[in-house]
Write a structure and sequence with these properties.
This protein is an all-alpha fold. It has one domain: 434 Repressor (Amino-terminal Domain) (Orthogonal Bundle), CATH 1.10.260.40. Helix content is about 65%, strand content about 0%. The longest helix has 17 residues. The termini are far apart.
Length: about 120
Amino acid sequence: MNRTVVRRFAARLKALRKERGMSQEEVAQRSKLHPTTISALERGLYIASLVSLDQLAHGLGVDISTLVTFPDESKTVPKPNPRDAEKTMILMALDNFDEPTLRKIRKALQLFSAV
């Protein structure tokens, strides 16, 4: 697998989303994908399938070719943070909880971060 292409795609996806002033949640909803999927794609942790590329293009209001065209090849793409994989695993585990339980978890995390 060519990690450079994955990182370039991740940066392109994030740039297109930000250019449109959209959150990851908005892109996920419009693309019919989960927000954790958008997050993982933007960090280069997932590789998008053709179906996902089509859904992302629709959600962003662009052609698929726009998603996979990297306008400035000379720019360096930041390497993913090794801790991102851990965060993704946690986010994927949270997908199994219902909304009331997620609210409780968020509240508990807020209390811990305030300490």
